[in-house]
Amino acid sequence: MKAQQKQPNILFIAIDDLRPQLNAYGLNHMITPNLDALAAKGRLFKNHFAQVPTCGPSRAVMLTGQNLKSKKEIYHPYLGNKLANQPETENPETFIHHLKQNGYYTVGMGKISHSISGKRKKAYELPYSWDTFISNKDGYQMYASGAKRNKKVTPPFEMLKVSDETYPDGRLAQLAIKELEKRATSDKPFFMAVGFLRPHLPFSAPKKYWDLYNRKEIPLSPNPDAPKDVADEFLHPSSEFFGQYYSPEKGGVRKRISDAYAKKVIHANFASVSYVDAQVGKVLNKLKELGLDKNTIVVVWGDHGWHLGDQTIWGKHSAFENALKSTMIVKTHKMKKAGKATESLIATVDVYPTICELAGVSKPVGLDGKSFVSILNNPKKKTRDAVLSYWRDVVSLRTDRYRFAVYNDGKSQEMMLFDHQKDPNETENIATKHPEVITNLLPLLKKMNKGYLPDLK
């Protein structure tokens, strides 16, 4: 029996800024047939939460299975700076390195750690993880013309009648297809990571994906105002959206933009989601065409969420649900109760031990995550009572019912609490109204925090 038949292949698809915004999540206005089809054959996670609502650090947690230890580590090149040019040790730098050490051929392309080239200042961000990293030299192209973002002239979206391959994700899908063809002739099990850019800003997508939606029918945010009784410290001015791109209107903390402009931006986001869904579909279709789907685990992971005007925020970088909840779909070839979604809580930090178990390799000691393979076998299983996330001076705890967050900059402390049974859109902070809930949740938050914010009271 060939090695590839003994161990499963793993196709890992990372999608930038993809909140749980698929038809499969019950959003009937979304046109995402390929990811929906995967969910119908796999396990859709309705409560997957990232530890950090920004790209680089969230990916660092996913790759290492380790929570960040302080707010100083929240910056995009964190993992690259930590690993690049360092000697190889017995301890694997990432779960990809661990798979490589255990007989897997590992190949990556697109945005996996943070840099699309896979490098940090000419040195590989993950120097020992990859057998091959396929660099898409023009991966940072944001607009069809090749222009870079400019807050004075370039908008946060683009609609042109162009081919899918005009933008990096279209070309990335073709690279992935070619690599799958190579893997199909190998006896060695493979781990292949493909990192798509959209729907990260700017929301650039070919016109045909915009045409899938009628702007008049596009829904606005169900919670476009700042939550009642929430402190300003939990809000932010959406500086990426309003500060790095040209916008005819300015919003931010407690300030809404017009409904007309909001619909235009949301339309652009929807088009970007449908565009990336189509690219994922091309890769999955090739996997099936080659017969590799019979022994390949597929993981689709969104690195964090995104506010589409929710709580007056356009972007990520918050401790609210919309910034921390993201897409997660896992399909195994021997899945029980396939197509059944799960409400069980899981975290990005859980990816590492889960992949180890699925691949049949030992789990290194010292990981912070918990394997959720039991949930893949039974959607009603539970591996966690809570998930902890963090952003700058805020730690945020999510249980089955509550979102509880604490801001502490070493000088002052604020709290916010939302009851998701009664207020799933997080419209009213009930921290002062329900001190008994705070009394129960604060010790758990402190226990899970492990010193990230040392001054919590």
UniProtKB/TrEMBL annotation:
Keywords: Calcium, Hydrolase, Metal-binding, Signal. Its cofactor is Ca(2+). The keyword Signal applies. Gene3D superfamilies: Alkaline Phosphatase, subunit A. Residues 8-361 form the Sulfatase N-terminal domain. InterPro entries: Alkaline_phosphatase_core_sf (IPR017850), IDS (IPR035874), Sulfatase_CS (IPR024607), Sulfatase_N (IPR000917). Belongs to the sulfatase family. This is Arylsulfatase A-like enzyme.
